[in-house]
Amino acid sequence: MSLTNAPDPAIRQAVVQQDLENVLHPIIQHKALESRQIVVTGAEGSTIYDADGTAYLDAMAGLWCVNIGYGRAELAGVAAEQLRQLAYFPHTSMNVPAAALAEKINGLLGGGYHTYFVNSGSEANEAGFKIARQYMKHEHPGHYRFKTVSRYFSYHGTTLATLDAGGMGERKAKFEPFSGDFVHVAPPYCYRCPFGLDYPSCGMACVRNLETTILGEGPETIAEVVIEPIMSGVGVAVPPDEYLPEVEKLCRKYGILLHVDEVINGFGRTGKMFGHQHYDVAPDIIAIAKGISSAYLPIAATVVKNSVFDSFYGEVSENRQVGQVNTYGGHPVAAAVAVRNIEILEAENLAERAADVGAYLLDGLRGLMEHQAVGDVRGKGLLLGIELVKDRAAKEPVGPDAITAVVNFCRDNGVLVGRSTGGRRYGNTITLSPPLVITRSECDRIVETLDRALSTVELG
Ligand SMILES: Cc1ncc(COP(=O)(O)O)c(C=O)c1O
Questions:
Q1: Other beta carbons less than 10 A from residue 194's beta carbon
Q2: Alpha-helical segments (H) within 4-72
Q3: 125: Cβ below 6 Å to ligand 1?
Q4: What pLDDT does 45 receive?
Q5: How far is the CA of 2 from the centre of ligand 1 (A)?
Q6: At 115, is the secondary structure helix, strand, or coil?
Q7: How far is CA 92 from CA 22, 114, 315, in A?
Q8: Rounded to whole angstroms, how far apart are CA atoms 258 and 281?
Q9: Among residues 320, 347, 374, which one ends one of the domains?
Q10: How would DSSP label each residue in 116-150?
Q11: Looking at the structure, do residues 153 and 29 belong to the same domain, yes or no?
């Protein structure tokens, strides 16, 4: 059975049948899929096409990942050429595209880093936790520095450890209990400051909370702190500018590694190549995925500062090498595609474009504040959130049915928007993370569709 972009209701129906009888989908309830599905058969720029011919403006770039936009045929050529040349060999050896990609990443970071390749954002963070622990064993023999400090409402992946690192109780509930190696602190979610304070008079209470936690746990038990520079999952929480530098200072003070999760923030999304580059910090460990290849092929990486790399360097007899392997790590075809993807990001100045078009979109979204249900509009680059509340003064979140109705209204009007996953309580933010090639007129369409949704949907 083959589907082209030409609408064909009979073939579409057959695919839906085949899928419902054979596929187990993530997150979405199958019962819902029985009545409403999108069968994606093609995509171009920021638009995806259903087999029935319906076009949707994808304001989420898939899952926050198709940074260069859909339909870049040249990447098919790169993949085909590399498949013919060398499809695969384990990364205990070397290959041409992976070496080139690591060099490219090192250059984007200003030098001083080595890259360990994996296949997904979860694996990139998971490898980061393990590298931090192993580093501490090398550097502090006889000590046991194993804990990771992370933030409530964060998301770092779907494996047991990354889920444990995440701070969304509802996402974790089905899989408890966890190891307890992850300690959580309050996030810099300023619209709902966990301390009930306002910036800047808060004195960065969230950073003081982090220091109290480090001291309470005992710095000698902590390997690293993991931070997504701009928290996406909670509904895009942009921290005060001094937050990340202050966290870095604490890490240096207590000999703790700073692990930054750039899985969504990276590769131009926030208006710079990496989110942490807004804040002039030098992380020890950086998890990258998604935009590294704009999801044209699965590839991800854990990038480590040379001071960490040096700890893994020594005589064979010292047994300092990285203590894990991923079969597909450094996959030559995915690496070749990622290199060309980054070349496109650079040649088309897509990070700068994200800053520019993102500011335009943010401005348009601020106009939605005329709806009483819009409590907050925020973002950086093309990573944005519109938080919906029942009452602006009380900031009571709208319920799950209301936010679902807004998302569905937009979808039924041809625009795919996302929503926060901050658990049942804070799942009340519409999220936007479109391809970095989105045009201003497409941004206007997102704003206009949300405007109609907010006027139409019962939000009370
Ligand atoms: C911030 C962050 N980290 C890690 C991940 C996990 O990435 P993956 O789904 O590729 O495993 C995600 C996924 O959305 C993410 O948003």
A1: 17
A2: 9-22, 30-35, 61-64
A3: yes
A4: 98
A5: 31
A6: strand
A7: 36, 15, 17
A8: 10
A9: 347
A10: EEESSHHHHHHHHHHHHHHHHHHHSTT----EEEE
A11: no
Sequence-distant (≥ 6) Cβ neighbours of residue 348 within 8 angstroms: 68, 437
**Is any ligand 1 atom within 6 A of the Cβ of residue 156?**
yes
Nearest CA owner, ligand 1 atom 2: 156
pLDDT averaged over 10-residue windows placed end to end, the chain, 460 residues: 67 96 95 95 97 97 98 98 98 98 98 98 98 97 96 96 93 91 97 97 98 98 98 95 98 98 98 98 98 98 98 96 96 98 98 98 98 97 97 93 96 97 80 98 98 94
How far does residue 452's CA lie from ligand 1's centre (Å)? 31
Structural domain range at position 47: 9-68+350-456
Position in ligand 1 atom list of the atom nearest CA 63: 14
Distances (CA, A) of 233 to 183, 330, 364, 402: 18, 28, 22, 18
* Cα–ligand 1 centroid distance for 62 (angstroms): 12
Say whether 433 sits in a helix, a strand or coil. coil
> Closest ligand 1 atom to the C-alpha of 289?
10
Rg of the chain on CA atoms, in Å: 22
Ligand 1 centre distance from Cα of residue 264 (Å):
7
Task: Kindly give the distance from the C-alpha atom of residue 121 to the centroid of ligand 1, in angstroms, as a whole number.
Answer: 5
364 lines ligand 1 (CB under 6 A): no
Predicted local distance difference test score (pLDDT) of residue 9: 86
**What pLDDT does 187 receive?**
96
Question: Quick check: CB of 121 below 6 Å from ligand 1?
Answer: yes
Residue owning the nearest CA to atom 13 of ligand 1: 157
320 and 384 in a common domain: no
The reported pLDDT for the residue numbered 381 is 98
Residue 183: strand, helix, or coil: strand
Q: Is the CB–ligand 1 distance for residue 261 below 6 Å?
A: yes
Return the pLDDT at 169: 87
pLDDT of residue 4: 52
At 107 the three-state DSSP class reads: helix
Question: From atom 3 of ligand 1, which residue's Cα is the shortest distance away?
Answer: 156
CATH number of the domain encompassing residue 150: 3.40.640.10
Same domain, 396 and 413: yes
Residue to probe by mutation, ligand 1, list 65, 156, 267, 431, most atoms within 8 Å of CB = 156
Q: How far is the CA of 233 from the centre of ligand 1 (A)?
A: 9
